[in-house]
Q: What sequence folds into this?
């Protein structure tokens, strides 16, 4: 059985201030740096229960990389950057507060708040495309690391479609899955049974976090 530890990156100023992020490279803020350190220590202490991490993959964006690095250091491994786990492209919405988008694009913003699986943002990427590439990335990881414990550090808008794709959860799924900054979920893969969620949104070790709804 292969164990996947699916991690959302630590907090950034954009998370704290409700700004659309996409592929803009917002760095971890002070809280996010502390979250990454707490995450690494927690996973190291839990290695006997959930497995010693043998490989860690990350989105290329700095907020994910800087969350992955303390974990990699704890386990004596290198971070592997994989573009398939980069954040969703949000086109012209990137770097803009939710309040401004709600005023400028009220119908599209309503769709984002209700059924984002149906949304196409000008210049952006669809969740279905994110799901396709991230599931493909996981399947490649399972091929390379059978029977191992592997961590993946990525983004909320990657983790939600990824988890839904792994367990065949149909749309609308986005707002039925909650994932906090620097929290993680554990997914098991059994060659005979497929994927199973073992734990979801584990966050009790975090010193502070903002709940994004």
A:
């Amino acid at each position: 059985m292969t164990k996947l530890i699916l991690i959302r990156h630590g907090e950034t100023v954009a998370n704290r201030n409700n700004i659309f992020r996409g592929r803009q490279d917002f760095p971890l803020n002070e809280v996010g740096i502390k979250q990454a350190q707490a995450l690494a220590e927690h996973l190291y202490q839990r290695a006997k229960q959930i497995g010693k991490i043998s490989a860690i993959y990350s989105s290329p964006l700095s907020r994910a990389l800087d969350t992955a690095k303390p974990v990699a250091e704890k386990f004596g491994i290198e971070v592997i950057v994989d573009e398939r786990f980069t954040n969703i492209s949000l086109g012209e919405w990137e770097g803009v507060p939710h309040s401004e988008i709600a005023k400028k694009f009220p119908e599209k913003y309503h769709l984002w708040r209700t059924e984002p699986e149906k949304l196409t943002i000008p210049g952006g990427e669809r969740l279905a495309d994110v799901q396709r590439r991230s599931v493909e990335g996981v399947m490649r990881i399972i091929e390379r690391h059978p029977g191992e414990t592997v961590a993946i550090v990525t983004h909320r808008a990657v983790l939600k479609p990824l988890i839904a794709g792994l367990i065949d959860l149909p749309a609308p799924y986005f707002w039925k899955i909650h994932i906090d900054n620097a929290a993680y979920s554990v997914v098991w893969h059994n060659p005979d049974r497929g994927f199973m969620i073992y734990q979801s949104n584990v966050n009790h070790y975090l010193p502070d976090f903002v709940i994004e709804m």
Observations:
- The longest strand covers residues 194-202.
